[in-house]
Design goal:
- The protein is α+β, with helices and mostly antiparallel strands.
- The protein has helices spanning 11-22, 26-44, 50-58, 98-118, 121-132, 141-144, 181-203, 209-215; strands spanning 62-66, 79-82, 85-91, 157-164, 167-174.
- The chain is built from 8 helices and 5 strands.
- A 3-stranded antiparallel β-sheet has the order 1-3-2. Strands 4-5 form a two-stranded antiparallel sheet.
- Helix 2 (26-44) runs antiparallel to helix 5 (121-132).
């Protein structure tokens, strides 16, 4: 597992000022800011484009197919062992019999479908952490539906809320550490929230509840009834 140290300098100032300005308990402020950080994390996390996935599969130089996929008249083939059993390696710049080419197209379609279905899995990490914390963040449809062979691995990502006396903490854990970009994304999200707060401070946003509501919709909703 990859562990990452994230610089959270400035967040205490943000939480305390927001709590005082809105007369909101620190717990509620912390949850609102966590929601905003998770939303930003999802937004900043990259995902492959649909066309990019299709192009990579279509332009691949090599392809492996199960030995059983095609029986050639001349059994001289390059066979390798894979986790799914023996497979044949084909160079896609070669010419192939129609039957073999049909099998190749079928496997290309299957792989394309799998990768397109999974392209939002890394972004989905933030949604799953939010769900553990009882927070609701908006994500694109392809992220909410993301899965690899029907599985979305929610156990990889967790959120934890802890209270001890006057102490309170929110913790998010993203287990998809095969992608090191997560650390940079989280740092960007946290740093962005601190900068946003300081910019609002300079603009005098905290002098007006209406201005705070516009700037922090996850935190403040004014009852106008």
């Amino acid at each position: 597992m990859i562990t990452a140290e994230i610089n959270t300098a400035g967040m205490d100032e943000v939480l305390l000022k927001l709590s005082r300005a809105t007369d909101t308990p620190m717990v509620d402020v912390a949850r609102a800011e966590m929601l905003s950080i998770l939303e930003a994390g999802q937004k900043f996390t990259p995902s492959a484009s649909v066309q990019g996935i299709k192009d990579r599969i279509a332009m691949a130089e090599w392809m492996t197919l199960p030995v059983s996929a095609y029986a050639p008249k001349r059994p001289v083939r390059r066979v390798i062992d894979t986790k799914n059993g023996p497979a044949v390696v084909y160079r896609m710049t070669n010419r192939f019999p129609a039957e073999l080419w049909g099998q190749m197209r079928s496997f290309m379609n299957i792989r394309s479908h799998l990768r397109l279905a999974a392209r939002g899995l890394l972004k989905k990490s933030w949604l799953q952490v939010a769900a553990h914390l009882g927070l609701d963040i908006l994500v694109p449809g392809y992220v909410a539906r993301a899965a690899w062979k029907g599985n979305d691995y929610p156990e990889d990502n967790r959120g934890r809320e802890e209270r001890s006396g006057s102490g309170y903490s929110l913790t998010g854990e993203i287990g998809r550490t095969y992608d090191r970009r997560i650390k940079a994304v989280l740092q960007r999200a946290i740093t962005g929230r601190v900068k946003y707060f300081r910019k609002n401070l300079e603009k005098g946003v905290f002098d007006s509840l209406e201005a705070i509501e516009r700037a922090y919709p996850n935190l403040l909703k004014i009852n106008r009834s």
